[in-house]
Specification:
Two copies of one chain form a homodimer.
Chain A (H helix, E strand, L loop, with lengths): L15 H9 L14 E10 H13 L6 E4 L23 E5 L2 E4 L12 E7 L1 H10 L5 H4 L5 E8 L9 E9 L1 H12 L10 E2 L26 E6 L2 H10 L3 E5 L5 E6 L7
Antiparallel strand pairs in A: 1-5, 1-10, 1-11, 2-5, 3-4, 3-10, 6-7, 7-9, 8-9
């Protein structure tokens, strides 16, 4: 019997640079959850410069679902404020290419699609605040049960900017009341990764008819004595892109985020 | 027709010192609500020194219902850290004298009862956080309806110390979810006046059978779409005193607080 060597896939990256290198080399082509623990991960939206101002205003007007961590120079695939040597064309495990609001392909590299006028937006992601919640002893059921978080389109409209508009999308985590109060405190410190919840309690009040039927992700049980706690979600800008039917847009594939060199700890506002 | 002169009672005191002088002179003998707006008011407990250590440990172990703002020297009726020239024997509008756990009298002056071994405890009061909530645009129904806040004994036990124990008492304020989230943020900054809520939502989870039947104060309606939000309450130490059947204790009468020279603004932790 020989010992099986540990494959690179079995060893999560320790640093943001390691995770990006794994994605760049094709060793990491799926979720980034669990990679480079402690490091900020981001939602990615890439758009032609002609739409960039409208999209940036959309983010500025909707800071809870779309907290901007960085915006690139047009045509420049680097993001120096988020990490050394980032090449956004290769450093995500997987991309989604959207044409006229329809999902076109899911490549692992977008060098062939890159345009000189592309602007990259990196938007804060709930992985950061989930790590902060877990670090303070709050159990997150979807993680415990190895599911995706449950996400819902609400009847809360985003503030429109140019062609970008649509409903706010929220993620939901069930908690007892004491954890919900603590979660408000913890996530209030993290405005750049969605901040405090946008709703607690009755789902119908924000236009969610049935918690067992999420619009994205997996259903997660809310047990007796628990409150559903809702946060603004980074899927909101993707929904706005689709709604706007822009000729071309590229995003990360679900869960396949940009892993940065920033530490989650550095995001705390106080 | 002659103009009726404005009586001193009609003009709320502007400063803590003015409010205390009004109480001392007998012009103010009821509630201090609305007096010296912006100034910290406090719950008062006066006990013989032999019980002071146990009571102080009780407060230390139960900081949410019993946040200590000041403790006097034995026998000294002044509280220099809370205000210039305070004489705790005369500066409350009205007192309650408790003997063996029973309410004995409600005098407006306790000079005749003062003992050389009396220690005064001043405990933060919800007036401070209510002012902070209202300043941020949150409507408080009991204030709007000019009622006392609704208070309930819970099934949450305080941490005992010596003879002091008993249930935590909470106050309840109904709010929509957005205001409840904001209220957690605002009151988290104010740990010395009860801090963040201790519960949101289902009253039965903390042993409250019927919101329409408060144990203290007035019932306040919770409307559809609202969450009952519960804060630890300064009545908790009074309940513990009664429970302990101490030979003698003196407290403020309900709503007749010590008005200090401190500003509510100064209490904010961040």
């Amino acid at each position: 019997m020989t010992e099986s060597p540990s494959t690179p896939e079995c060893t999560p990256a320790r640093t943001g640079a390691d995770a990006r290198l794994a994605a760049r080399s094709g060793r990491l082509d799926r979720h980034t959850s669990g990679q480079a623990m402690g490091h900020v991960q981001g939602n990615v939206v890439i758009l032609p410069a002609a739409l960039a101002t409208d999209f940036m205003r959309f983010c500025q007007r909707n800071p809870k679902p779309c907290p901007l961590l960085a915006v690139s120079e047009p045509g420049d695939p680097s993001l120096p404020t988020l990490g050394k040597g980032i090449d956004i064309r290769t450093d995500l495990p997987r991309y989604r290419v959207w044409r006229d609001g329809e999902l076109s392909t899911e490549p692992t590299d977008i060098r062939a699609l890159w345009q000189d006028d592309f602007v990259t937006f990196v938007i804060g992601c709930s992985f950061s605040f989930e790590e902060a919640l877990m670090a303070e002893g709050i159990t997150l059921r979807h993680i415990e049960q190895q599911r995706n978080v449950a996400m819902y389109r609400t009847n809360v409209a985003t503030e429109a900017a140019g062609p970008f508009s649509g409903p706010m999308v929220v993620s939901m985590r069930p908690m007892n009341a004491a954890d919900a109060i603590r979660a408000v405190q913890i996530t209030s410190r993290l405005p750049s990764v969605h901040g405090a919840p946008v709703h607690i309690g009755e789902p119908a009040q924000i236009g969610i008819a049935d918690l067992s039927k999420p619009d994205y992700g997996d259903a997660v049980e809310v047990r007796p004595g628990e409150l559903p706690v809702f946060w603004a979600c980074g899927v909101t800008p993707q929904a706005a892109l689709v709604h706007a039917r822009v000729p071309i847009a590229i995003t990360h594939a679900p869960g396949a985020m940009l892993v940065t060199d920033l530490l989650n700890r550095q995001l705390a506002a106080f």
